[in-house]
Amino acid sequence: MRAAMAGADVDDDVLSGDPTAQRFEEEVARIMGKEAAVFVPSGTMGNLISVLVHCEVRGSEVILGDNSHIHIYENGGISSIGGVHPRTVKNNPDGTMDIDRIEAAIRHPDGALYYPTTRLICLENTHANCGGRCISVEYTDRVGELARKHGLKLHIDGARIFNASAALGVPVHRLVQAADSVSVCLSKGLGAPVGSVIVGTKDFITKARRLRKTLGGGMRQIGVLCAAAYVALRDNVVKLEDDHRKAKIFAGSQFSLCDQVFFNINESSMISPISLCEALEKFGVLAMPASSTSVRVVIHYQISESDVHYALTSIKVALSLLLLEGPKSSYSRNTSCWNHKMRTESVIHHFTCS
């Protein structure tokens, strides 16, 4: 990958002249089954640009999940920068939103004097805050049909769409066929150093390029980044199934999907996700708190099966040490029931692998 970056043929991409970027974008568009693509520095910018292109009129409304990445983790950019109003629909545990609830959230034209105008629906696949769940092609098609019925556009935040494709056994172009635009992260499961890519129609991408420049995302010789992304696309997509297999080993579940594992910590153990992650870091195992009671671990192609077993052993050792230490003084809850002999197996009481 670094050799490809060093040898990349480059030019000025702002002036649409970087040959490596052009080849990469054309290849992504072909794989995704869309007309065109554009490289952007981050997934957050990719989603922001996509929403703003579809919602060109300020005060437009987008329907999206109440637990979606765009709504929670992207700094409210669609509102603060784009003047787009988010209308949330409750996410189900599997990452979907009930179709009837989506339809009920669409503003009726008769209320245009009072309400924002609905122009866009956003889905997320895989859905990060719902445990990395994969959204089925059947569900996506149904939402696409609903969008077309009401004259709306459909955008998919597909940061890990290739993981979803591998896990579901559905070609990625078919998985996003119903979408008008898709953002794909290149630096997560695919393992490129930086960047995302947006795909859509030629007209959509033309507008997206202009917005990318407006938002400060117009870079010059981006061929060095696109060369790495091309290697990731060429070499690492086929490795995703093995990432999923190793995630299953980590979770000990035959029903696991994708590259992420979430596990809950029994609250009675008095061990916080933060303290466990800090303890694991001392063993060279990096994990992150997913909530006040759960921890998130991500597997990628550079993690071997032996690394997975080492991480599992490290978790057991870290839990044992934390149990021996007892509750931290910062805990406000009653600690009289503390039992330092609590078995580590009872501390982690549920794995969700997705």
Automatic annotation (TrEMBL):
GO molecular function terms attached to this record: L-allo-threonine aldolase activity
Biological processes, Gene Ontology terms: glycine biosynthetic process; L-threonine catabolic process
Keywords from the named record: Pyridoxal phosphate
Modified residues (N6-(pyridoxal phosphate)lysine): K188
Entries under InterPro entries matching the protein: ArAA_b-elim_lyase/Thr_aldolase, Low_specificity_L-TA-like, PyrdxlP-dep_Trfase, PyrdxlP-dep_Trfase_major, PyrdxlP-dep_Trfase_small
GO CC field: cytosol
Location of the Aromatic amino acid beta-eliminating lyase/threonine aldolase domain: 1-249
Source taxon at top rank: Eukaryota
Entry cofactors: pyridoxal 5'-phosphate
Similarity section: Belongs to the threonine aldolase family.
Record protein name field: Aromatic amino acid beta-eliminating lyase/threonine aldolase domain-containing protein
Organism annotation: Musa balbisiana (Banana)
